[in-house]
Amino acid sequence: MNEQIEFPQIDPNAIKRGLKYAFFFIVVLIALGGVQSTFFSVGPEEKAVVQRFGKVIAVKEPGLHFKFPLGIDTATMVPTERVLKEEFGFRTTVAAQRSKFIKTPDMLNESLMLSGDLNVIDVEWVVQFKVNDPVKYLFQVRDTRDTIRDISESVMRRIVGNRLGSEVLTVGRVAIADSTLQEMRQILTSYNMGISIERIELQDVTPPEEVKSAFNEVNEARQQRERLVNEAEKNRNQIIPRARGEADQIVAESEAYRAERTNLARGEAARFTSLLSAYRESPEVTRRRLYIETMEEVLPDIGKITILEESGTSPIPLLNLRTSENKGGAQ
Amino acid sequence: MKSAFVKSAAASVLLLVLVVGGVVLSSSVFFVDEAEQALVLQFGKPVGEAITTPGIHFKTPFIQEVRRYDKRLIAWDGAPNQIPTRGREFISIDTMARWKIVDALQFVKSVRDESGAQTRLDDIIDSVVRDKISSTELTEIVRSKDWEVTEEDLKRANVMAPENDSSALTSEIKVGRNTLTKAILNEASKDMPELYGIELVDVRIKRLNYIPSVREQVFQRMISERQRVAAQFRSEGQGEASSIMGDTSRQLSEIRSEAKRKAEVIRGEADAEATRIYNEAYSEDPEFYALLRTLESYPITLGKQTELLISSESEYFKVLRNLTP
Fold it and tell me: Which residues of B touch A54 (CB under 8 A)?
């Protein structure tokens, strides 16, 4: 009942050789892996968080560094110098000189919000942030990006909801960005997440597509108001200075009249006074001279002169001077 | 031959010891990451407290296993809910929360794992949000406590209140967004550490909007409000232009009449002055003036149209007559 189990005949030397090769191969692999995972380089915009058996032991600055291989030490790069950004209500698809943007219905849900006067506004904005503490960044909050997004949406809606819609659309932009920044900083600090919010930039802030035309109508009406006022003012600016000039002219003319009138009076008065003094020297002669001179001047131009004989009963012309000329003149 | 066999047997034993030792070691050593905490379970039952310090830790091999839980803040994002407010406006509200595991032992007992926790949070937060929102006016949800809008603000911003009743916009906010979310957080996080080993760190309203059917009406309202503002602008423009034009013609007649008045005054003064000058000179000898002036006026008053009848006795012709033989 002896049953012999038959082993296949294997050459012990061959096993030995095989083991030797395998051993050698493993050693080389381990050595290669070890060397490769002993060095790591940290880029200029990053810092490296080094963990030993999971525990953080160091934060390394940019440069080449050593660590223990074989999973004893692990290094995680965190971009601490780069300004990261999150976009709300749109996405940049091509970032270049002429960037391209898209806005899907999903993104519209990010940006549609209620203003304090219960109107709907489409607010697009960008949050820029930096990692200022890589350890906190990695180990305090799990869904970092979602957290920044959620907080930003929540805060922006609170701020916009606390203002009048038309204020949000026009003058409130800077104040809104500023308040959102302050409040986000406060919340993220309380989360202790190693992030610093650098800037918040409001992009397009518009009324929803459905009501845009009504808003444009208001703008048009506002411009129309301005135009009407401007035209009226232009008209006024044309008329009033001209009227002022004309008024000055009227006054100046009256002043000219005054000068003329008084000068004339003075001249005539002076003439009279000097005549008078001459007259007084010999009144009779002067009187006669003046009379005769006047007659001399007057008579040639008189149409018809009839000299009456004083002694006669009826007016009989004694002399009828220049009858023919008179006829011509009467024509 | 024999020594070679012994050698290889020894090598095999050594290899076996090494392998077994490695297996035992790897089963009794575990690492806890900085982001994690761990529980050691023996046949499914937790042993001791949760391990929260990162680094290298030990356990009994084979019979104990390690469960890892996140130590960090974890996101909870609720599905958007349609809830009527106190004023019966249906709004769609999307809330977010952040929570963390503070008591892994309690956590594993009550909700088992993260997805269990998320489901529990869904139930709790949704119900609290529903309660709070439906008992609050929409304005109190949208605005915050420091809401302060005056009539002047409305005027400056060209806002037209519905039915011209601005009290809906200017009235004080009693609760406000911040207080409301704080109340939701307080209510929802009540007893959570004790019951679930969870700390609810934050709850916020992420999104709030009208439901689509209401939104249509709101757009209509916005459109008509804007149209009213536009109409106001237009009539303001016309009114202002008219007032400028009226002002222009007022200024115009003022300027003109003022100029005329001045001119008349000046002319009057001139006439008076001239009269005074003449009077002064002529009153020296009024008779001579009369003579002079009369003689001066003859060339003007007498001309071609004149027929002059002169007596031969007159001064001028007397001489002529007397010359007659």
Answer: 31-34, 36, 54-56
Q: Which CATH number fits domain A84-207: 3.40.309.10, 3.30.360.10, 3.30.479.30, 3.80.10.10?
A: 3.30.479.30
- Domain residue spans of chain A: 28-79, 84-207, 210-243, 276-330
Q: What is the pLDDT of residue B25?
A: 85
Q: Look at residues B103, B88, B27 and name the one whose alpha carbon lies nearest to residue B58.
A: B27
What is the predicted pLDDT for the residue at A1? 46
Domain total in chain B:
3
- pLDDT at residue A40 in the model: 84
Q: Find the mean pLDDT for residues A295-305.
A: 82
Closest residue to B252, CB basis, from A115, A157, A240: A240
B252 contacts on A by Cβ (under 8 Å): 239-240, 243
**pTM score, whole prediction:** 0.71
Domain residue limits at B260: 213-302
Which ipTM value was assigned to this complex? 0.75
Put simply, the answer to whether A233 touches B244 (Cβ < 8 Å) is yes
- The residue-averaged pLDDT of B210-217 equals 89
The first and second tokens of residue A130, run together, are 């930096």
Residues forming a β-bridge with B64: B42
| Chain A hits for B262, Cβ within 8 Å | 250-251, 254
Residue A113 C-beta-side C-alpha neighbours within 13 Å: 33
**Chain A residue whose CA is closest to B309:** A306
**A71-to-A52, A54, A108, B239 alpha-carbon distances in Å:** 8, 10, 45, 82
